[in-house]
Amino acid sequence: MDTQLIPAELAQEDTPSAATQVFLDSAGSSLPPQSVVDEVVNHVRREAEVGGYRAYGERLDDLEAGYGLAAEFFGCAPDEVAFTDSATRSWLSVLDAVPLTQGDRILTTEVEYGGNAIALLNLAQQVGATVELVPSGADGLIDLDALRDTLDERVKLVSLVHVPTNGGVVSPVAGAAAIAREAGALVLLDACQSIGQLPVTLAGTGADVITGTGRKWLRGPRGTGVLVVRRDALTRLRPRLVDLAGATWTGPSEIALREDARVFELWENSIADRLGLLVAFRYALDLGLDRIAASVTDRANRLRAGLARLPRATVRDLGEHPSGIVSFTIDGMAADDVKAALAERDITVTVSRVTSTRHDMSRRGLEQVVRASPHYFVADGQIERAVDAVARL
């Protein structure tokens, strides 16, 4: 039986602003549901009434329960979950804990995100490691045979991206992770663009570490991130940047690190935003992750099909079953100009540039693409309105 789609009009009842515009940027920073907004704002107000520490103490049980909530979302144990202030913080914290030395190898793919690539190259230069590229096929998917042939005992880390920032391709991360882990490499998965639009579990992806953000498809607050670390991978990581959240000062010259994923947390964080993130997790779970995925796919496929009918538009997404990200170009018109022209019609898209996904964009001869990312709260009529607006450019 087909998964029942989420009626956009029903979702818009929780997100009134989604009904008054055509919002196609959930891959950037989505519109949060009203329950998330209320949780954040109410806690900030409570902090103004009684101070941050007392307000925090009143919500300790809710914050602790959040680890179990995220564990339900990712299909893992609560002690494999940590919360951070961004996906970037999650990703960099784990990368810094990977014990890399002279001569070690790091493998990445053609859809590696620019921020990750910069961090990898910088670290590799400092320790004398190398960063090497695993090629993709013409369909944009990782060449698993090439990955297998490239692996050896010197490969300490394989960096994978589930869904790239510049298009709809969904990488075969489970197959790649299985090959990499069999060879003894740690697998770090950037799931920024998949969490909240596709089911993402520790077992399903096969990764050792999953990093993600709250502000995109999950519809949580900005300034929130999540980190999932497989329990048996924790013993292979050596966190350096810890404070009193991740460790205890046990004696004048002694400390004891936490033995769970929370070793990567920092003491200072926005409690209001953390609470809002937990509401976003619960909201997604209540809707149903499979139902969300089916609804996002439906909206994206409708937009892709409409754009493909336009004579000057070229849809740039790869893969047989693309995600909710729709990338396209318009002949004779710069992506920034398309974005600006659509904004005048109250249609929100963004631009993805070669600097964000250099390997993939360069291989395909692209400098920039328009990126549209419709969530389940975008109605069919709004999709038609967006296609019509592009046709008029």
Automatic annotation (TrEMBL):
The modification N6-(pyridoxal phosphate)lysine is found at residue 216. InterPro entries: Aminotrans_V_dom, EgtE, PyrdxlP-dep_Trfase, PyrdxlP-dep_Trfase_major, PyrdxlP-dep_Trfase_small. Keywords: Lyase, Pyridoxal phosphate. Gene3D superfamilies: Aspartate Aminotransferase, domain 1, Type I PLP-dependent aspartate aminotransferase-like (Major domain). It catalyses: S-(hercyn-2-yl)-L-cysteine S-oxide + AH2 + H(+) = ergothioneine + pyruvate + A + NH4(+). It holds the Pfam family Aminotran_5. Its EC number is 4.4.-.-. Coiled coil: none annotated. Signal peptide: none annotated. Pathway: Amino-acid biosynthesis; ergothioneine biosynthesis. Residues 22-380 form the Aminotransferase class V domain. The keyword Lyase applies. GO terms for molecular function: hercynylcysteine sulfoxide lyase activity (ergothioneine-forming). The keyword Lyase applies. Probably catalyzes the conversion of hercynylcysteine sulfoxide to ergothioneine. Belongs to the class-V pyridoxal-phosphate-dependent aminotransferase family. EgtE subfamily. HAMAP family: EgtE. This is Probable hercynylcysteine sulfoxide lyase. It comes from Actinokineospora terrae. The gene is egtE.
